Amino acid sequence: MARMKFLCDTERCIECNGCVTACKNEHEVPWGIQRRRVVTINDGVVGQEKSMSVACMHCSDAPCMAVCPVDVFYRTEDGVVLHDKDACIGCGYCFYACPFGAPQFPQEGAFGQRGKMDKCTFCAGGPEADGSDAEFEKYGRNRLAEGKLPLCAEMCSTKALLGGDGTALADIFRERVVRRGGTGAELIGWNTAYGGGEQKREQTRGGDK
Amino acid sequence: MCAHLIVMLRTALLAAVLGLGWIAAPAVSAPPDNNADVYRAVREGSAQSITFTAPADQMLIQSEGQTWRQWRNGPITQIGGWVLAGVFIALVLFRLIRGKIKLEGPPTGRLIQRFTTVERMTHWTVAGTFVLLALTGLTLLFGKHVVIPLIGYSAFSWLAALAKNVHNFIGPLFFAATLVMIALFVRDNLWQSIDALWIRKAGGLLSGEHVPSWRFNFGEKTWFWLGVTGLGLLVGITGLVLDFPGYGQIRQDMQLAHILHASGALIFMALSLGHIYIGSVGMEGALESMKTGYVDETWAKEHHEYWYREAKGATGAAPAAPTGARPSGAH
């Protein structure tokens, strides 16, 4: 049985936010909630800037699952951490515990109370029947049931974000590590895309100024 | 083949640069495929920008959640649960050994007012909301372990949603009533020199001896300062931080508030068991005083002798002067 994982290759992520947009669109995620986000460190510092896309990491020892007072979380056979929105009471404990800020809450009612928690489902829906309207309404599309992988990773333009069986991802990543050298844009093939390498890149930048 | 050559050349060049010590450009601190530095920086929240941030969530990867989880699932749930159970068992044992504290003399039938209507209304508002908050809070902390096996997952989810909403809406009322109660009772809970005697004799709780006091003895004062005031304000303020998440508090603030709230509330509940015991089944006449506002003169004389004499003095009967000195300002 597969053990589903996400992997984001920071040597490739270009902070295009395509994954975020794909996710929001595919699942019709409500306003104010992002199941996936992109973080950039050392933004604008030449040679040190790194970006990565992060969502629910479907932990083996999931903190959300450990602290939930009503036990709404469950793990599928593929190792995907899902939750039952019908039983969620909106206490926010999973949001306190999660390292990745995955659980998020829509505001409801006169006092802006927390509604039912929403998070990345690894495109695997929820407890409702696979592909049903009820499932889509609450959790978004169930792509795994259709034999497809998460859309964020499938649509990633630089294939920085990978989603799928951990063993397969590890093989892909290992091969990348073995083949490539250098850092940053060199890795995704600047030469291939634009030709001229570093010199050309510097010239282009100069021309922009 | 060409790419391979370039890699080889780059490696050779890098080795040459390192060997000669020409490090003009920023050095590559870690191997290019090792993202440990990146993840470390992200966890520290240093120099990072997030494309989408929520007010409560200014760090993408937070390690504090793990600490919160360990506190909440560890000592708070486990020690807290055993402390509550322990106090309950201790009270049952106390009752079996010491029995109900009864009046020693016969009741006179003459009544003295001990609590005004406002005081009683405030007390019962605080008491009622406290019990509701305690029960709903316990449901959220222990329900997963205790109630789900009994009534099942779906029924418990319904119960927990009710518990959360009752807790969130009753909480601010409890806080407001607590503030009123502190203001009403603070004067008579200030230190009085006779309290030293109560401490020396441990309130006569085990010996059965009556220790004289003014309106409130040191046991009641401990409950007032430690329980009502200290823990009441602690759980009240941290509760507001948790109850209204949209006022700029970030996740780490709420984690800390929750730890203080839960541990404070468990100590509060443990202490309250003692107060509820002595105020109901543990002592004859105690419940009537808060129900009706009046106590029998015998009760007043036995439990609060100085206060009794003072009250008698105020109603015109001949009081014997209390022997203990009293501070100015306390009435």
Automatic annotation (TrEMBL), chain A:
Q: InterPro entries attached here?
A: 4Fe4S_Fe-S-bd (IPR017896), 4Fe4S_Fe_S_CS (IPR017900), ET_IronSulfur_Cluster-Binding (IPR050954)
Say yes or no: keyword Oxidoreductase present: no
Check the record and name the Pfam families matching this protein. Answer: Fer4_11
Keywords from the UniProt entry: 4Fe-4S, Iron, Iron-sulfur, Metal-binding
Question: What PROSITE patterns would the database entry show?
Answer: 4FE4S_FER_1, 4FE4S_FER_2
Q: Where is the 4Fe-4S ferredoxin-type domain?
A: 4-32, 79-108
Q: Output the Gene Ontology terms for molecular function.
A: 4 iron, 4 sulfur cluster binding; metal ion binding
User: Could you identify this protein by its name?
Assistant: 4Fe-4S dicluster domain-containing protein
Species of origin reads Denitromonas iodatirespirans
Automatic annotation (TrEMBL), chain B:
Q: From the record, give the transmembrane residue ranges.
A: 79-97, 169-186, 223-244, 256-278
Which species does the entry assign this protein to? Denitromonas iodatirespirans
List the Gene3D superfamilies hit by this protein, alphabetically.
Transmembrane di-heme cytochromes, Chain C
Q: What's the protein here called?
A: Formate dehydrogenase subunit gamma
- Which Pfam families would you find in this protein's record? Ni_hydr_CYTB (PF01292)
Biological-process GO terms, alphabetical: anaerobic respiration; formate oxidation; respiratory electron transport chain
Give the record's keywords alphabetically. Answer: Cell membrane, Electron transport, Heme, Iron, Membrane, Metal-binding, Signal, Transmembrane, Transmembrane helix, Transport
The major lineage groups are:
Bacteria, Pseudomonadati, Pseudomonadota, Betaproteobacteria, Rhodocyclales
Cofactors needed by this protein, per the record, are: heme
